[in-house]
Amino acid sequence: MINLFQNISPKNREKLLYTLESSRLTFSKNQLILANITRGNIIGILVSGMVQIIKTDYNGNRCIIEELEENDIFGTNITPLANMDYDILTKEESTVYIIDYDEILNLDLSKDYYNQFVKNLLEIIIEKIEEKNNHIEILTKKTIRNKLLEYFNIESKKTGTRVINLPFNFTNLADYLAIDRSAMSRELKYLKEEGFIEIKNHKITLLYDKY
Amino acid sequence: MINLFQNISPKNREKLLYTLESSRLTFSKNQLILANITRGNIIGILVSGMVQIIKTDYNGNRCIIEELEENDIFGTNITPLANMDYDILTKEESTVYIIDYDEILNLDLSKDYYNQFVKNLLEIIIEKIEEKNNHIEILTKKTIRNKLLEYFNIESKKTGTRVINLPFNFTNLADYLAIDRSAMSRELKYLKEEGFIEIKNHKITLLYDKY
DNA sequence: TGTAAAATGTTGCAATTGCAACAATAAAGT
DNA sequence: ACTTTATTGTTGCAATTGCAACATTTTACA
Q1: From residues 37-66 of B, which are strand C contacts by CB within 7 A?
Q2: Is A17 in contact with A97 (CB distance < 8 Å)?
Q3: pTM for the whole thing?
Q4: What residues are paired with B44 via a beta bridge?
Q5: Are the C-beta atoms of A141 and A179 separated by less than 8 Å?
Q6: Which nucleotide minimizes the distance between its C1' and the CA of A188?
Q7: Under-70 pLDDT residues of chain B
Q8: Protein footprint on strand D: which nucleotides are under 7 Å from a CB?
Protein backbone atom coordinates (compact mmCIF):
# COMPACT_ATOMS: atom_id res chain seq x y z
CA MET A 1 0.00 0.00 0.00
CA ILE A 2 1.41 3.32 -1.08
CA ASN A 3 1.61 5.97 1.60
CA LEU A 4 -0.11 9.22 0.78
CA PHE A 5 2.91 11.09 2.09
CA GLN A 6 5.46 8.96 0.33
CA ASN A 7 8.45 11.00 -0.85
CA ILE A 8 7.35 14.02 1.13
CA SER A 9 9.52 15.26 3.98
CA PRO A 10 8.02 15.38 7.48
CA LYS A 11 8.23 19.15 7.40
CA ASN A 12 6.37 19.46 4.13
CA ARG A 13 3.92 16.86 5.32
CA GLU A 14 3.01 19.15 8.18
CA LYS A 15 2.59 22.07 5.80
CA LEU A 16 0.30 19.98 3.65
CA LEU A 17 -1.82 18.86 6.55
CA TYR A 18 -2.13 22.45 7.60
CA THR A 19 -3.09 23.68 4.15
CA LEU A 20 -5.65 20.93 3.77
CA GLU A 21 -7.22 21.89 7.07
CA SER A 22 -6.59 18.50 8.52
CA SER A 23 -7.64 17.28 11.89
CA ARG A 24 -6.28 14.26 13.65
CA LEU A 25 -8.75 12.01 15.43
CA THR A 26 -8.42 8.81 17.40
CA PHE A 27 -11.23 6.33 17.88
CA SER A 28 -11.47 3.32 20.13
CA LYS A 29 -12.62 -0.05 18.87
CA ASN A 30 -16.09 -0.45 17.35
CA GLN A 31 -16.71 3.24 16.85
CA LEU A 32 -18.41 4.81 13.85
CA ILE A 33 -16.05 7.31 12.32
CA LEU A 34 -18.41 9.09 10.02
CA ALA A 35 -20.94 9.82 12.72
CA ASN A 36 -18.32 12.15 14.16
CA ILE A 37 -17.52 14.10 11.05
CA THR A 38 -19.77 16.88 9.99
CA ARG A 39 -17.71 18.50 7.29
CA GLY A 40 -18.63 18.17 3.66
CA ASN A 41 -16.28 16.68 1.18
CA ILE A 42 -13.47 14.97 3.03
CA ILE A 43 -10.76 12.43 2.63
CA GLY A 44 -9.73 10.39 5.62
CA ILE A 45 -6.33 8.82 5.96
CA LEU A 46 -5.98 5.86 8.26
CA VAL A 47 -2.76 6.48 10.16
CA SER A 48 -3.03 3.41 12.34
CA GLY A 49 -5.58 0.75 13.18
CA MET A 50 -8.16 -0.95 11.02
CA VAL A 51 -11.61 0.03 9.81
CA GLN A 52 -14.33 -1.52 7.70
CA ILE A 53 -16.77 0.20 5.43
CA ILE A 54 -20.08 -1.56 5.82
CA LYS A 55 -23.41 -1.22 4.13
CA THR A 56 -26.53 -2.54 5.80
CA ASP A 57 -29.69 -2.53 3.74
CA TYR A 58 -33.34 -2.45 4.72
CA ASN A 59 -33.39 -6.26 4.92
CA GLY A 60 -30.61 -6.25 7.44
CA ASN A 61 -28.14 -7.72 4.98
CA ARG A 62 -24.68 -6.41 5.64
CA CYS A 63 -21.99 -6.15 3.04
CA ILE A 64 -18.41 -5.29 3.73
CA ILE A 65 -17.59 -2.84 1.01
CA GLU A 66 -13.98 -2.31 1.97
CA GLU A 67 -11.58 -3.19 4.69
CA LEU A 68 -8.95 -0.55 5.27
CA GLU A 69 -5.53 -0.91 6.80
CA GLU A 70 -2.76 1.52 7.64
CA ASN A 71 -2.22 4.20 5.00
CA ASP A 72 -5.44 3.47 3.23
CA ILE A 73 -7.86 6.28 2.61
CA PHE A 74 -11.59 6.78 2.55
CA GLY A 75 -13.74 9.73 1.74
CA THR A 76 -17.02 11.16 0.70
CA ASN A 77 -16.10 10.81 -2.94
CA ILE A 78 -13.94 7.74 -2.87
CA THR A 79 -16.06 5.49 -0.76
CA PRO A 80 -19.78 5.44 -1.23
CA LEU A 81 -20.66 7.80 1.54
CA ALA A 82 -22.77 10.16 -0.45
CA ASN A 83 -25.85 8.56 0.95
CA MET A 84 -25.55 7.89 4.58
CA ASP A 85 -26.35 4.20 4.70
CA TYR A 86 -22.69 3.34 5.01
CA ASP A 87 -20.86 2.90 8.23
CA ILE A 88 -17.16 3.35 8.75
CA LEU A 89 -16.46 1.14 11.70
CA THR A 90 -13.21 0.81 13.59
CA LYS A 91 -12.21 -2.81 14.18
CA GLU A 92 -9.48 -1.73 16.55
CA GLU A 93 -8.27 1.54 17.99
CA SER A 94 -7.60 3.74 15.00
CA THR A 95 -6.20 7.16 14.25
CA VAL A 96 -7.17 9.12 11.18
CA TYR A 97 -6.43 12.41 9.53
CA ILE A 98 -9.41 14.12 8.03
CA ILE A 99 -8.57 16.53 5.21
CA ASP A 100 -10.65 18.72 3.02
CA TYR A 101 -11.07 17.24 -0.43
CA ASP A 102 -11.96 20.46 -2.19
CA GLU A 103 -8.74 22.02 -0.97
CA ILE A 104 -6.81 19.39 -2.87
CA LEU A 105 -8.15 20.63 -6.15
CA ASN A 106 -7.06 24.13 -5.21
CA LEU A 107 -3.49 23.18 -4.44
CA ASP A 108 -0.80 25.02 -6.31
CA LEU A 109 1.05 22.11 -7.78
CA SER A 110 4.10 24.11 -8.66
CA LYS A 111 5.36 23.22 -5.21
CA ASP A 112 7.12 19.89 -5.28
CA TYR A 113 5.41 18.38 -2.34
CA TYR A 114 1.91 19.29 -3.46
CA ASN A 115 2.80 17.76 -6.77
CA GLN A 116 4.01 14.59 -5.13
CA PHE A 117 0.95 14.50 -2.92
CA VAL A 118 -1.49 14.56 -5.80
CA LYS A 119 0.43 11.87 -7.64
CA ASN A 120 0.41 9.70 -4.54
CA LEU A 121 -3.30 10.24 -4.22
CA LEU A 122 -3.77 9.23 -7.83
CA GLU A 123 -1.85 6.02 -7.30
CA ILE A 124 -3.78 5.11 -4.17
CA ILE A 125 -7.08 5.68 -5.87
CA ILE A 126 -6.05 3.54 -8.79
CA GLU A 127 -5.14 0.78 -6.36
CA LYS A 128 -8.59 1.18 -4.91
CA ILE A 129 -10.16 0.72 -8.31
CA GLU A 130 -8.23 -2.49 -8.73
CA GLU A 131 -9.61 -3.70 -5.41
CA LYS A 132 -13.10 -2.88 -6.54
CA ASN A 133 -12.61 -4.64 -9.83
CA ASN A 134 -11.55 -7.70 -7.91
CA HIS A 135 -14.60 -7.45 -5.74
CA ILE A 136 -16.87 -7.15 -8.76
CA GLU A 137 -15.12 -10.07 -10.36
CA ILE A 138 -16.02 -12.18 -7.35
CA LEU A 139 -19.58 -10.98 -6.97
CA THR A 140 -20.18 -11.68 -10.62
CA LYS A 141 -19.68 -15.41 -10.15
CA LYS A 142 -22.95 -17.28 -10.01
CA THR A 143 -22.30 -19.97 -7.43
CA ILE A 144 -20.94 -19.84 -3.92
CA ARG A 145 -18.20 -22.23 -4.89
CA ASN A 146 -17.06 -20.06 -7.76
CA LYS A 147 -17.14 -16.96 -5.59
CA LEU A 148 -14.95 -18.65 -3.04
CA LEU A 149 -12.51 -19.97 -5.63
CA GLU A 150 -12.28 -16.59 -7.30
CA TYR A 151 -11.61 -14.98 -3.95
CA PHE A 152 -8.94 -17.56 -3.18
CA ASN A 153 -7.26 -17.04 -6.53
CA ILE A 154 -7.18 -13.28 -6.17
CA GLU A 155 -5.78 -13.42 -2.66
CA SER A 156 -3.31 -16.08 -3.63
CA LYS A 157 -2.12 -14.04 -6.60
CA LYS A 158 -1.61 -10.99 -4.35
CA THR A 159 0.84 -12.73 -2.09
CA GLY A 160 2.17 -15.27 -4.52
CA THR A 161 1.56 -18.10 -2.07
CA ARG A 162 -0.98 -20.89 -1.80
CA VAL A 163 -1.75 -20.03 1.80
CA ILE A 164 -4.34 -17.37 2.39
CA ASN A 165 -4.44 -15.51 5.65
CA LEU A 166 -8.03 -14.40 5.91
CA PRO A 167 -8.21 -10.72 6.81
CA PHE A 168 -11.77 -11.40 7.91
CA ASN A 169 -13.46 -13.84 10.18
CA PHE A 170 -15.84 -16.16 8.32
CA THR A 171 -18.89 -14.12 9.15
CA ASN A 172 -17.31 -11.09 7.56
CA LEU A 173 -16.03 -13.07 4.62
CA ALA A 174 -19.58 -14.14 3.85
CA ASP A 175 -20.63 -10.50 4.00
CA TYR A 176 -17.85 -9.52 1.64
CA LEU A 177 -18.84 -12.23 -0.82
CA ALA A 178 -22.50 -11.31 -0.36
CA ILE A 179 -23.55 -14.85 0.44
CA ASP A 180 -25.28 -16.51 3.35
CA ARG A 181 -22.84 -17.46 6.05
CA SER A 182 -24.21 -20.91 6.72
CA ALA A 183 -24.38 -21.71 3.02
CA MET A 184 -20.76 -20.63 2.73
CA SER A 185 -19.85 -22.81 5.66
CA ARG A 186 -21.49 -25.76 3.92
CA GLU A 187 -19.63 -25.08 0.69
CA LEU A 188 -16.30 -24.75 2.49
CA LYS A 189 -16.97 -28.15 4.05
CA TYR A 190 -17.51 -29.66 0.60
CA LEU A 191 -14.34 -28.05 -0.72
CA LYS A 192 -12.44 -29.56 2.19
CA GLU A 193 -14.01 -32.98 1.69
CA GLU A 194 -13.19 -32.92 -2.00
CA GLY A 195 -9.59 -32.09 -1.23
CA PHE A 196 -9.48 -28.62 -2.78
CA ILE A 197 -8.55 -26.76 0.35
CA GLU A 198 -7.41 -27.11 3.91
CA ILE A 199 -8.47 -24.79 6.71
CA LYS A 200 -6.62 -24.19 9.92
CA ASN A 201 -7.64 -21.33 12.15
CA HIS A 202 -8.14 -18.57 9.68
CA LYS A 203 -5.64 -19.83 7.15
CA ILE A 204 -6.76 -21.51 3.98
CA THR A 205 -4.33 -23.60 1.97
CA LEU A 206 -5.06 -24.21 -1.68
CA LEU A 207 -4.41 -27.79 -2.72
CA TYR A 208 -5.42 -27.50 -6.36
CA ASP A 209 -3.10 -26.34 -9.11
CA LYS A 210 -5.22 -23.80 -10.84
CA TYR A 211 -8.81 -23.59 -11.84
CA MET B 1 -18.83 13.26 -17.43
CA ILE B 2 -15.79 15.44 -16.94
CA ASN B 3 -13.55 15.86 -19.94
CA LEU B 4 -9.93 14.96 -19.35
CA PHE B 5 -8.92 18.11 -21.22
CA GLN B 6 -11.35 20.37 -19.45
CA ASN B 7 -9.92 23.85 -18.87
CA ILE B 8 -6.96 23.13 -21.08
CA SER B 9 -6.52 25.11 -24.28
CA PRO B 10 -6.42 23.22 -27.59
CA LYS B 11 -2.81 24.22 -28.00
CA ASN B 12 -1.76 22.92 -24.63
CA ARG B 13 -3.87 19.85 -25.22
CA GLU B 14 -1.72 19.08 -28.25
CA LYS B 15 1.44 19.58 -26.22
CA LEU B 16 0.13 17.22 -23.61
CA LEU B 17 -0.78 14.56 -26.10
CA TYR B 18 2.68 14.85 -27.55
CA THR B 19 4.42 14.63 -24.19
CA LEU B 20 2.35 11.63 -23.21
CA GLU B 21 3.29 9.89 -26.43
CA SER B 22 -0.28 9.58 -27.49
CA SER B 23 -1.56 7.88 -30.55
CA ARG B 24 -4.98 8.35 -32.04
CA LEU B 25 -6.80 5.26 -33.25
CA THR B 26 -10.18 4.66 -34.83
CA PHE B 27 -12.02 1.37 -34.68
CA SER B 28 -15.12 0.22 -36.50
CA LYS B 29 -18.00 -1.42 -34.69
CA ASN B 30 -17.45 -4.67 -32.79
CA GLN B 31 -13.68 -4.44 -32.69
CA LEU B 32 -11.49 -5.38 -29.77
CA ILE B 33 -9.41 -2.38 -28.82
CA LEU B 34 -6.93 -3.99 -26.55
CA ALA B 35 -5.97 -6.65 -29.03
CA ASN B 36 -4.46 -3.82 -31.04
CA ILE B 37 -2.39 -2.23 -28.31
CA THR B 38 0.91 -3.70 -27.40
CA ARG B 39 2.28 -1.00 -25.13
CA GLY B 40 2.54 -1.50 -21.42
CA ASN B 41 0.84 0.80 -19.01
CA ILE B 42 -1.62 2.91 -20.90
CA ILE B 43 -4.65 5.08 -20.47
CA GLY B 44 -7.17 5.25 -23.27
CA ILE B 45 -9.47 8.19 -23.76
CA LEU B 46 -12.65 7.61 -25.68
CA VAL B 47 -12.95 10.61 -27.97
CA SER B 48 -16.11 9.43 -29.68
CA GLY B 49 -18.20 6.30 -29.91
CA MET B 50 -19.07 3.72 -27.30
CA VAL B 51 -17.21 0.74 -25.87
CA GLN B 52 -17.89 -1.94 -23.32
CA ILE B 53 -15.45 -3.67 -21.04
CA ILE B 54 -16.45 -7.29 -20.86
CA LYS B 55 -15.21 -10.23 -18.88
CA THR B 56 -15.95 -13.74 -20.03
CA ASP B 57 -15.01 -16.53 -17.67
CA TYR B 58 -14.22 -20.18 -18.26
CA ASN B 59 -17.92 -21.05 -17.94
CA GLY B 60 -18.77 -18.69 -20.74
CA ASN B 61 -20.51 -16.28 -18.39
CA ARG B 62 -20.10 -12.72 -19.58
CA CYS B 63 -20.18 -9.74 -17.33
CA ILE B 64 -20.22 -6.18 -18.49
CA ILE B 65 -17.74 -4.52 -16.21
CA GLU B 66 -18.15 -1.04 -17.61
CA GLU B 67 -19.81 0.76 -20.43
CA LEU B 68 -17.90 3.80 -21.61
CA GLU B 69 -19.16 6.83 -23.42
CA GLU B 70 -17.51 9.91 -24.85
CA ASN B 71 -14.74 11.35 -22.64
CA ASP B 72 -14.58 8.29 -20.46
CA ILE B 73 -11.26 6.61 -19.97
CA PHE B 74 -9.94 3.11 -19.59
CA GLY B 75 -6.52 1.73 -18.94
CA THR B 76 -4.30 -1.03 -17.76
CA ASN B 77 -4.46 0.27 -14.22
CA ILE B 78 -7.93 1.71 -14.12
CA THR B 79 -9.84 -1.07 -15.70
CA PRO B 80 -9.01 -4.63 -14.86
CA LEU B 81 -6.82 -5.35 -17.81
CA ALA B 82 -3.84 -6.64 -15.95
CA ASN B 83 -4.83 -10.13 -16.80
CA MET B 84 -5.95 -10.49 -20.32
CA ASP B 85 -9.36 -12.01 -19.88
CA TYR B 86 -11.04 -8.69 -20.41
CA ASP B 87 -12.22 -7.41 -23.74
CA ILE B 88 -12.66 -3.80 -24.69
CA LEU B 89 -15.25 -3.98 -27.38
CA THR B 90 -16.49 -1.13 -29.54
CA LYS B 91 -20.28 -1.00 -29.75
CA GLU B 92 -20.09 1.58 -32.51
CA GLU B 93 -17.33 3.22 -34.49
CA SER B 94 -15.04 4.72 -31.89
CA THR B 95 -11.97 6.89 -31.72
CA VAL B 96 -9.53 6.74 -28.86
CA TYR B 97 -6.33 8.35 -27.71
CA ILE B 98 -3.86 6.02 -26.16
CA ILE B 99 -1.43 7.70 -23.78
CA ASP B 100 1.39 6.43 -21.67
CA TYR B 101 0.39 6.15 -18.03
CA ASP B 102 3.89 6.19 -16.64
CA GLU B 103 4.58 9.47 -18.36
CA ILE B 104 1.79 11.05 -16.36
CA LEU B 105 3.62 10.43 -13.13
CA ASN B 106 6.68 12.08 -14.62
CA LEU B 107 4.90 15.26 -15.65
CA ASP B 108 6.28 18.47 -14.28
CA LEU B 109 3.18 19.86 -12.69
CA SER B 110 4.54 23.36 -12.38
CA LYS B 111 3.04 23.94 -15.81
CA ASP B 112 -0.55 24.97 -15.48
CA TYR B 113 -1.93 22.61 -18.02
CA TYR B 114 -0.18 19.55 -16.67
CA ASN B 115 -1.50 20.51 -13.31
CA GLN B 116 -5.03 20.84 -14.64
CA PHE B 117 -4.68 17.56 -16.48
CA VAL B 118 -3.79 15.58 -13.40
CA LYS B 119 -6.62 17.12 -11.44
CA ASN B 120 -9.04 16.25 -14.22
CA LEU B 121 -7.73 12.72 -14.23
CA LEU B 122 -8.24 12.52 -10.49
CA GLU B 123 -11.83 13.65 -10.79
CA ILE B 124 -12.61 11.19 -13.56
CA ILE B 125 -11.16 8.32 -11.63
CA ILE B 126 -13.16 9.25 -8.58
CA GLU B 127 -16.30 9.24 -10.72
CA LYS B 128 -15.29 5.80 -11.83
CA ILE B 129 -15.02 4.63 -8.26
CA GLU B 130 -18.52 5.89 -7.61
CA GLU B 131 -19.74 3.86 -10.58
CA LYS B 132 -18.05 0.80 -9.23
CA ASN B 133 -19.51 1.32 -5.80
CA ASN B 134 -22.93 1.45 -7.40
CA HIS B 135 -22.21 -1.74 -9.27
CA ILE B 136 -21.09 -3.49 -6.09
CA GLU B 137 -24.16 -2.19 -4.32
CA ILE B 138 -26.31 -3.91 -6.93
CA LEU B 139 -24.37 -7.16 -7.10
CA THR B 140 -24.56 -7.41 -3.33
CA LYS B 141 -28.32 -7.78 -3.37
CA LYS B 142 -29.42 -11.36 -2.94
CA THR B 143 -32.44 -11.64 -5.21
CA ILE B 144 -32.98 -10.73 -8.84
CA ARG B 145 -35.81 -8.46 -7.85
CA ASN B 146 -33.68 -6.52 -5.40
CA LYS B 147 -30.87 -6.22 -7.94
CA LEU B 148 -33.27 -4.79 -10.47
CA LEU B 149 -34.83 -2.38 -7.98
CA GLU B 150 -31.43 -1.22 -6.79
CA TYR B 151 -30.37 -0.65 -10.37
CA PHE B 152 -33.54 1.30 -11.08
CA ASN B 153 -33.07 3.45 -8.01
CA ILE B 154 -29.49 4.28 -8.85
CA GLU B 155 -30.29 5.16 -12.44
CA SER B 156 -33.33 7.12 -11.40
CA LYS B 157 -31.31 9.08 -8.87
CA LYS B 158 -28.72 9.92 -11.51
CA THR B 159 -31.17 11.65 -13.79
CA GLY B 160 -33.69 12.72 -11.20
CA THR B 161 -36.53 11.22 -13.19
CA ARG B 162 -38.67 8.14 -12.85
CA VAL B 163 -38.04 7.11 -16.43
CA ILE B 164 -34.95 5.07 -17.07
CA ASN B 165 -33.47 4.95 -20.51
CA LEU B 166 -31.59 1.69 -20.53
CA PRO B 167 -28.08 2.19 -21.85
CA PHE B 168 -28.07 -1.55 -22.50
CA ASN B 169 -30.26 -4.01 -24.25
CA PHE B 170 -31.78 -6.57 -21.89
CA THR B 171 -29.20 -9.20 -22.65
CA ASN B 172 -26.46 -6.81 -21.63
CA LEU B 173 -28.38 -5.63 -18.61
CA ALA B 174 -28.55 -9.21 -17.36
CA ASP B 175 -24.80 -9.47 -17.86
CA TYR B 176 -24.23 -6.26 -15.93
CA LEU B 177 -26.39 -7.48 -13.06
CA ALA B 178 -24.72 -10.90 -13.26
CA ILE B 179 -27.99 -12.77 -13.49
CA ASP B 180 -29.49 -15.17 -15.98
CA ARG B 181 -31.24 -13.36 -18.80
CA SER B 182 -34.33 -15.52 -18.86
CA ALA B 183 -34.70 -15.35 -15.10
CA MET B 184 -34.44 -11.58 -15.33
CA SER B 185 -37.06 -11.55 -18.04
CA ARG B 186 -39.37 -13.53 -15.77
CA GLU B 187 -38.82 -11.16 -12.85
CA LEU B 188 -39.43 -8.10 -15.03
CA LYS B 189 -42.72 -9.67 -16.07
CA TYR B 190 -43.72 -10.07 -12.42
CA LEU B 191 -42.73 -6.48 -11.65
CA LYS B 192 -44.92 -5.33 -14.53
CA GLU B 193 -47.83 -7.51 -13.45
CA GLU B 194 -47.60 -6.23 -9.90
CA GLY B 195 -47.67 -2.67 -11.14
CA PHE B 196 -44.19 -1.64 -10.04
CA ILE B 197 -42.88 -0.75 -13.46
CA GLU B 198 -43.84 -0.17 -17.06
CA ILE B 199 -41.63 -1.06 -19.99
CA LYS B 200 -41.80 0.47 -23.43
CA ASN B 201 -39.02 -0.20 -25.89
CA HIS B 202 -35.99 0.20 -23.73
CA LYS B 203 -37.52 2.69 -21.35
CA ILE B 204 -38.57 1.66 -17.87
CA THR B 205 -40.96 3.82 -15.88
CA LEU B 206 -41.02 3.44 -12.13
CA LEU B 207 -44.54 3.45 -10.72
CA TYR B 208 -43.65 3.03 -7.07
CA ASP B 209 -42.76 5.86 -4.73
CA LYS B 210 -39.65 4.54 -3.14
CA TYR B 211 -38.54 1.28 -1.75
C1' DT C 1 -36.10 -6.22 -49.82
C1' DG C 2 -35.23 -10.64 -48.28
C1' DT C 3 -32.55 -13.51 -45.36
C1' DA C 4 -29.61 -14.42 -41.60
C1' DA C 5 -28.46 -13.24 -37.01
C1' DA C 6 -29.49 -11.33 -32.65
C1' DA C 7 -32.56 -10.23 -29.03
C1' DT C 8 -36.60 -11.18 -26.41
C1' DG C 9 -40.34 -13.90 -24.17
C1' DT C 10 -41.78 -18.11 -21.98
C1' DT C 11 -41.75 -22.35 -19.29
C1' DG C 12 -40.56 -26.76 -16.78
C1' DC C 13 -37.35 -28.57 -13.97
C1' DA C 14 -33.24 -29.58 -11.36
C1' DA C 15 -29.70 -27.40 -8.73
C1' DT C 16 -28.41 -24.01 -5.59
C1' DT C 17 -29.26 -20.95 -2.03
C1' DG C 18 -31.14 -18.43 1.84
C1' DC C 19 -33.30 -18.94 6.00
C1' DA C 20 -34.25 -20.64 10.45
C1' DA C 21 -33.07 -23.06 14.30
C1' DC C 22 -29.94 -25.03 17.16
C1' DA C 23 -25.48 -27.07 19.15
C1' DA C 24 -20.74 -26.42 19.87
C1' DT C 25 -16.80 -23.78 20.26
C1' DA C 26 -14.00 -19.65 20.78
C1' DA C 27 -13.33 -15.00 22.31
C1' DA C 28 -14.07 -11.15 25.20
C1' DG C 29 -15.08 -8.84 29.40
C1' DT C 30 -15.26 -8.48 34.45
C1' DA D 1 -11.86 -18.15 36.37
C1' DC D 2 -16.29 -17.56 35.19
C1' DT D 3 -19.91 -15.68 32.58
C1' DT D 4 -21.55 -13.59 28.68
C1' DT D 5 -21.23 -12.75 23.94
C1' DA D 6 -19.70 -13.71 19.35
C1' DT D 7 -18.40 -16.95 16.01
C1' DT D 8 -18.65 -21.26 13.78
C1' DG D 9 -20.71 -25.71 12.29
C1' DT D 10 -24.74 -28.29 10.84
C1' DT D 11 -29.11 -29.51 8.67
C1' DG D 12 -33.95 -29.65 6.68
C1' DC D 13 -36.70 -27.26 3.83
C1' DA D 14 -38.88 -23.81 0.99
C1' DA D 15 -37.84 -20.26 -2.26
C1' DT D 16 -35.16 -18.65 -5.92
C1' DT D 17 -32.35 -19.26 -9.71
C1' DG D 18 -29.88 -21.03 -13.66
C1' DC D 19 -30.29 -23.77 -17.48
C1' DA D 20 -32.16 -25.66 -21.55
C1' DA D 21 -35.20 -25.57 -25.12
C1' DC D 22 -38.09 -23.33 -28.04
C1' DA D 23 -41.28 -19.67 -30.26
C1' DT D 24 -41.47 -15.05 -31.55
C1' DT D 25 -39.94 -10.62 -32.65
C1' DT D 26 -36.56 -7.29 -33.89
C1' DT D 27 -32.42 -5.87 -35.98
C1' DA D 28 -28.56 -6.12 -39.10
C1' DC D 29 -26.79 -6.45 -43.50
C1' DA D 30 -25.89 -8.45 -48.18
Answers
A1: none
A2: yes
A3: 0.91
A4: B74, B98
A5: no
A6: D9
A7: 35-39, 76-85, 109, 210-211
A8: 7-12, 16-21, 29
pLDDT value of position A143: 96
Assigned CATH for A10-128: 2.60.120.10
Integer-rounded Cα radius of gyration of chain A: 19
- According to the model, what pLDDT value does residue B210 have? 64
Percent of chain A residues topping a pLDDT of 70:
91
Q: Do B129 and A133 touch (CB under 8 A)?
A: no
CA-wise closest residue to A181 among A168, A194, A172: A172
Torsional sign, CA B68, B73, B75, B79: negative
Q: Which CATH superfamily is domain B10-127 in?
A: Jelly Rolls (2.60.120.10)
Closest-CA residue of B relative to A53 is B133
Helix axes B181-193, B170-177, angle to 10 degrees: 100
Residues of chain A with CATH 1.10.10.10: 141-206
Nucleic acid strand C within 7 Å of B29 CB: no
